[in-house]
Write the structure tokens for this entry.
Amino acid sequence: MSISATTPEQAPLGRRIKRFMSDYPLVPLIILLVLLVLVLNIIQPGILNQRWVGNTIKFAIPLALMAGCQTMTMLTGGIDLSVGTAATMAAFIVATQGAIHDPATAMLMALVPALCIGFVNGIGVGVFRVHPLIMTLGTSLIGVGCLQVYQRTVIASGAKVPDFLIWLGTGVTWGFPNALLLFIPVAALLIFIQKRTGFGRLLYAIGDNERATRLAGVKYWQVILALYMFSSLLAGVMGLLYMGLIRAPSLSLAEPLVLTSVAAAVIGGTSIFGGRGSYTGTIVGALILQVMITLLTVLQMPEGARRMLFGAIILAVTAAYLRIIDDK
Amino acid sequence: MATEPLLDATGVAKRYGAVAALKNASLTLRPGEVHALMGANGAGKSTLVKILTGAIPANAGRILVRGQERDIRSPAKARQAGLVPVYQEPSLIPDLDVLSNLRLTQTPVEPFRHWIKELGVPDLDLRDLARDVPLAIQRVLDLARALAVEPDVMLLDEMTAALPANLAERVLDVVKRQSQTGRSVIFISHRFVEIAALCDRATVLRDGATVGVVDIEPGIEEKIVELMLGAKVEKQRVAQKKATEGAAPVDGSTRIAVRNLKVGTKLQDVSFDLKDGEVAGVVALEGQGQDELFAALAGSIRPDGGTIEVDGKAVRFTHPVDAIEKGIAYVPGDRSEALAMQQSVRENIALPFSAAFRNWGPIAKRREDATVQSAIERLQIDTRAQREVQRLSGGNQQKVTIARWIAADARTLLCFDPTRGIDVGTKQEIYKLLRQLAGQGKSVLFYTSELEEVQLVCDRAIVIFGGKVVDVLPVEIADEPALTRAAYGLPRDAKADVGILAEPHAAPEAQP
């Protein structure tokens, strides 16, 4: 009965390494990140200074936040494509309402539509069993439409980004980006939810085997509803931060980050089929992508070639990474 | 008989890796006969039928059709050779209308129309989508489709299983007439009554080999049961004594009372009590409604009729959580149904703790550790590879599915074939555990496909056949031959004097 429970010391070296990688998937990721930074330093000696590090982190944080939404939803085998719209709505509303109301009210108002999107997503996916890809794509499009209508009504009032957000998005204190003040608690919360709460455990279990969770007494729709609302709220918060960083409201502010955030989660080792992954991996994944973006910029390639290379690298890294940690 | 056989298969063998599904099967079919193919679960009936109809290739053996070796290695070629199957599951493509389904198999339409009329389905629009046709009618259409191509040999696999009585009668009638035109039928059924009424001879399989060919005549069912069981009859007498020691019937109060439960078409009318402190065995051939019974008790599906009472109060389960709250836990036989394979042993065992909304918050790690650890120790789970359940052996995985409910302290376990495909040592441990649980006043409903387990574990055996309880055997007499007889709907203690041509379902307890 204990035949298949092979202990590590009996297995050959290759298999032991594989099992080690499978048990500690962060190790190869961090190695990759360090390698990328080294390559960057060779191509452009001297780039590795405090300012560059600060900037990289500053831009990686919004990406990592959005990738947090993807990590959480992907654990259940889902995906959230509406995060771009949720974030953009929050950003646009805080900028326009910031001109009329005080910053705190504007920020609270900005998070309401994000929560609504999450609620609709959760009902669609959890109760009506619409595939998350379609559901979130649908709400995303509806959200963009609403935002366009809203834009016409507020066109006269002008825009003002609250100073607090600008401080948070762009400010640097003792060499550290202020955005870390938001990011570190949020990241800690995400990791805590995943590792140490009943809710987190259910996310993994649902992604792994939904039928088994049902037999264990889990009500799927409750978990999914809470999950997508949480994801949208996180996207809204990310939108506020991103507004402070970019400072120019637009109707497609956070949209370009959506698919990159999916890539960050996947590179970070989250399985798109569910049941596997962690936010720590996603953070490293977001950093890897951000460093790659810098790398491709300093190579001074034409935009088209840069995008091709970016896509190819994402594919290669993901494929290689899955190879390394796949233990079967 | 001097006539050349229509179909003659000898020495047919089929292996799946190390497992031999068929070792040495043979079957000879005379022209114009209805031939029963019989055997216990897993004897190899389905494998043989699949080989004869080209669905899977054999590893060895010779198959002659009308004295000639024919290539039947694909369903299309088997059809050309005149071998047409009607499988247990409807084979119409649901999203095509009936007519397109006919074209797909190049079935002539006029004969098809004729046959569906003969079979008692006159008002069918061929333009209807197959998915809109009721299940029972779909099976009849499958049969009509086979009849329309006028095959030499028809293979009917549990043809009448899902049919209402009036349709079944028409079907049997048509099959009988078919044989009078010189064509032959291979008929797989668990129902002796049908076999007696219809068949001329029977081939009996046991453990992948043909162990006998008998003429169907009054009183033959005992011989057939004997052939199906083989040497097991002898072996079992020895085991019996040991079993009765372990089974000390406790007179507990009624935990679950099931009355006239009906689910879909499979589970017709089932009533029984499960008492505190007992392990009640459920014995049934495949597909007699036991899956539906367990699913209904576990809250997975809603019954269509009847009542379930728990501790004297009527309950209506709409979700497994309702059953769990009553202390009823379901352990499925298929481990992949119950386990989150990529998660750790601990997470799998503790999964029910987090299920309710109020338990979504931070996990009380220390308390959980203690509970999980004691469950792991109680079941002696080998936890060397506990980081992912999929790395455990099958037996250890099965232990995890049970440990979950030991940790949750469920009062009633519904174990559906928990020892399927696991090693002997683990089986013994599970038997012991179930007896211990009963000793603590808990109750267990235990379905098993391995009949010898009944006397090792259970206090009594509830036998289900055709969706109804046909007998409840006390453990002392529930040996393998008795259970097999009961599972085939044959009466208890009536070996010689009740012939096979006697009344159907003659078990005294089953009569309303």
About this structure: The interface with chain B takes residues 1-7, 23, 192, 196-199, 201-202, 204-205, 208-209, 211-219, 222, 226, 275-276, 327 of chain A (CB under 8 Å). The first helix of chain A runs from residue 13 to 23.
